[in-house]
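Course assignment 3, question 2. Fill in each field.
Student: A.L.
Task: Predict the tertiary structure for the chain below.
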Amino acid sequence: MKYFAIVLICIITFASCDSSKSVVEQDTEAVAEATNDTVRIANDELEYEILIIDPGFNNWLVTQQPRGYYGQEFLERKNIQFVAEWNRRVMNWQLFDINLYQQEINYQFNIDYGYEVNYMLYNYFIYFQQRYNQNFPGNRGNLIRG
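Answer field:
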């Protein structure tokens, strides 16, 4: 059976402050669980998951444009650019901080992961660039806001 793992982002930074546990349901294809600043989005049919472990991401996300503001095609195009840059930085560990870029992202460009996955991945890339003072090609400065 083919297994497509979209991403396993494990960026381990400083221990986060104790936060409340909650579960957030999105659409029928993807469910995001938020527990102690860990976001998990999974789809058992396509056998993929996204894990975002980064203190502060959930609080930051609620200050951004709501779901539906960007179209899925826009999010997919941006994610293709950002994933390519991320993976380039993982492979060039001599030039980029190995603590930030630990693992490649397996994002298959020909698979429709749905809106929720693309929305969360896109926003994580924006958050990551802002928090760690990184700049990916294709990012417009007006998209990064605090």
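Instructor remarks: Residues 21-143 form one domain. The two ends are 42 Å apart (CA to CA).
Grade: pending
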